[in-house]
Write a structure and sequence with these properties.
about 475 residues; mainly beta; 46-stranded antiparallel β-sheet; 4 helices; 46 strands
C-alpha cells in the first residue's frame, strides 16, 4: 500500500483524497499535529496508521502491525513487513532484504554488474563475488560458495564428505570434515586425522599439534619478542613459557597462574575466583560479584548474568551504563570539562560536568530518554531491549498508552492515542482536549477558545471580541 492510498482512506474522516496540510485533532480517530520539536504526525485509528515528517524531512510511514518504512538518516532507510518475517534496508548504494531465513544483498544498486548474494539458509546459496565471478551451491549436495565464513571460496560435494576452501593463496582440503584435513603451501602446513593426531604449522609463527584431542596438545611459537612453548595434558596439568610471559595450569581450566611484564592473573578456581593486576585490573567472585578495568573501560557484574555496569571514558565524554536484566537499563553520556588553554594536560581524567544524553527503562512499565533539550517519557514498555527500530516502528505504539515529550520549553502529553491530549508551546500557547467531550486553548495574546462535543457548543475570545458558536455554524457575538 502506498501512502497516497492510505491518505485516501483518511477521507472517511477528513473529507478529501489529497494530502492534508491543515492541523486537526479528532482524538484517536484521526489527527494531524506537530510535536514539540516541530515534526508533523498524521495518525488514523490510534496507533494503526501514521505518517510523520520531522524538520529534517526524514519520514516515517506505517500501517501497523503490517508494514512500516522510515528514512532514518539522509543515507539510510529501512522497512518491515510483519516483522520479523520481512525486513529491508538501503544504506548509501547498498540494498538488502531478508524474508524469514532468506537474505539478499546488492552491494551497489547503481551498478547492474555489482557484487551481490542471495543466501536462503540452510539450503541455497547464490551470488556474484567482488571479482565478478558467479557462484551457486545447494547444501549439502554440492556447489561453490564465495566470500563466506571468512573464506574467499569453498567448494564441496556431499558435505561433509569433501570440502575444498581457499583464503588468498592458501588452499585446504577436507574429507569427512572435521576428521581428515590437509593443507600445504608457502604459509601453512596443516594435517589432521581427528581426534587421533594432527598439526597446524604457520611458517615463522607457530607449530601447534594434538594427540587424542583435546587431552594432549602442545605448541611452539616463533613470534619476535614472544617466542617459546606450551603444552596441555587434560585434565592434569598445563604450562606455557614465552619470552614475555609464563603461566601454569593445574586441573585445567580450574586453576591457573600467569605472569608477564604487564600483568599477573589467576583462577582459584575458574570460573568462581578470577583475578588480575597490571594493565588489566580484575577480580571476580562468580556469579555473585566482580569488576574489570582495562584502558578506558571500567565495569563489572553482580548476580551474573542479571546485573552489569560499564563506565566508558571517551574523548570529550564519559558514558555510564547500568543493567539489571530484564527489569532495568540506564545509560548516561556526560560531556567533560575542557582544560583551560594555559593549563598543562594531566594524567587524570577531566571531570564529567554536563549530562548531554540519558536513557532508562523499567520493564515493562515505562521508559525515558533525553538528548540535548528533547526528551520523552512513555508507558508501557513491553519490549525489554533498547532501540529496536522494527519494534519501535511496528509494535511499540500499540502498548504506548501515555507519552510525555518535550523540546526546550515545548511539551506534549498524550493518553490513549489522543483520547486525552495536552499541548504547551512555551509561554506562547497551551491546549487541552478530552475527545470528544471538551477541548480548550489559549495563547499569550489573551485569545482563548473552548468547544463541547467538537463544536456542538463553542466559545471564542480574541482581545475585546467574544462570540458563541452553536452546532458548528455561525457565531453569535457577545
Amino acid at each position: 500500500m502506498r501512502p497516497t492510498l492510505a491518505l485516501a482512506f483518511l477521507t472517511l474522516f477528513a473529507g478529501c483524497a489529497t494530502p492534508i496540510k491543515t492541523d486537526f485533532d479528532w482524538g484517536p480517530v484521526a489527527s494531524r499535529l506537530r510535536d514539540p520539536a516541530g515534526s508533523t504526525h498524521l495518525k488514523v485509528l490510534g496507533p494503526i496508521y501514521e505518517h510523520a515528517a520531522d524538520t529534517n524531512k526524514l519520514n516515517l510511514w506505517a500501517v501497523r502491525p503490517f508494514y512500516s518504512t522510515a528514512a532514518e538518516t539522509d543515507e539510510k532507510s529501512a522497512s518491515e513487513l510483519l516483522w520479523p518475517i520481512e525486513f529491508s534496508w538501503d544504506f548509501q548504494n547498498n540494498h538488502g532484504r531478508r524474508v524469514l531465513t532468506s537474505f539478499y544483498t546488492d552491494f551497489d544498486k547503481t551498478n547492474s554488474n555489482s557484487r551481490w548474494h542471495w543466501w536462503c539458509f540452510p539450503f541455497w546459496f547464490q551470488g556474484r563475488d567482488a571479482h565478478g565471478t558467479n557462484y551457486a551451491a545447494f547444501f549439502p549436495l554440492g556447489g561453490s560458495l564465495h566470500e563466506f565464513l571468512f573464506q574467499d571460496e569453498a567448494n564441496f560435494v556431499l558435505w561433509p564428505l569433501y570440502i575444498h576452501s581457499r583464503l588468498n593463496d592458501e588452499n585446504s582440503y577436507h574429507v569427512l570434515w572435521p576428521v581428515f584435513c590437509r593443507e600445504n603451501n608457502a604459509k601453512n602446513d596443516r594435517f589432521r586425522v581427528w581426534p587421533l593426531y594432527g598439526w597446524n604449522i604457520r611458517h615463522d609463527q607457530f607449530d601447534k599439534r594434538f594427540c587424542l584431542w583435546p587431552f594432549v596438545t602442545w605448541a611452539s611459537y616463533q613470534h619476535p619478542g614472544s617466542s617459546g612453548y606450551g603444552y596441555l595434558v587434560l585434565p592434569l596439568w598445563g604450562h606455557m613459557k614465552l619470552e614475555n610471559q609464563e603461566s601454569w595450569m593445574l586441573l585445567p581450566p580450574f586453576f591457573k597462574y600467569g605472569t608477564s611484564a604487564k600483568k599477573k592473573m589467576g583462577y582459584t578456581p575458574w570460573p568462581v575466583i578470577q583475578w588480575a593486576s597490571g594493565d588489566i585490573e580484575k577480580f571476580y567472585v562468580w556469579p555473585l560479584w566482580g569488576y574489570k578495568n582495562y584502558g578506558h573501560i571500567h565495569g563489572g557484574f553482580y548476580l551474573w548474568p542479571l546485573g552489569w555496569w560499564r563506565h566508558l571514558d571517551r574523548t570529550g565524554e564519559t558514558v555510564d551504563r547500568y543493567t539489571f536484566a530484564p527489569l532495568w537499563f540506564s545509560e548516561s553520556a556526560w560531556r567533560k570539562a575542557a582544560q583551560p588553554p594555559t593549563q598543562q594536560p594531566t594524567a587524570s581524567t577531566a571531570p564529567a560536568t554536563n549530562c548531554v544524553a540519558r536513557y532508562w527503562h523499567l520493564w515493562p512499565l515505562c521508559a525515558y530518554e533525553r538528548f540535548g533539550d528533547q526528551s520523552r517519557f512513555r508507558t508501557l514498555m513491553l519490549w525489554p531491549m533498547r532501540h529496536s527500530a522494527p519494534i519501535e516502528r511496528e509494535y511499540a505504539p500499540f502498548w504506548t498508552l501515555y507519552t510525555h515529550t518535550t523540546a526546550g520549553t515545548n511539551s506534549d502529553d498524550e493518553l490513549l492515542w489522543g483520547l486525552v491530549r495536552r499541548q504547551r508551546r512555551g509561554t506562547e500557547s497551551s491546549r487541552f482536549s478530552l475527545f470528544p467531550l471538551v477541548d480548550w486553548s489559549h495563547d499569550h495574546h489573551g485569545a482563548s477558545e473552548w468547544n463541547l462535543l467538537k463544536g456542538v457548543l463553542g466559545y471564542e475570545r480574541s482581545g475585546t471580541n467574544a462570540s458563541v458558536r452553536l452546532l458548528w455554524f455561525g457565531h453569535i457575538g457577545l
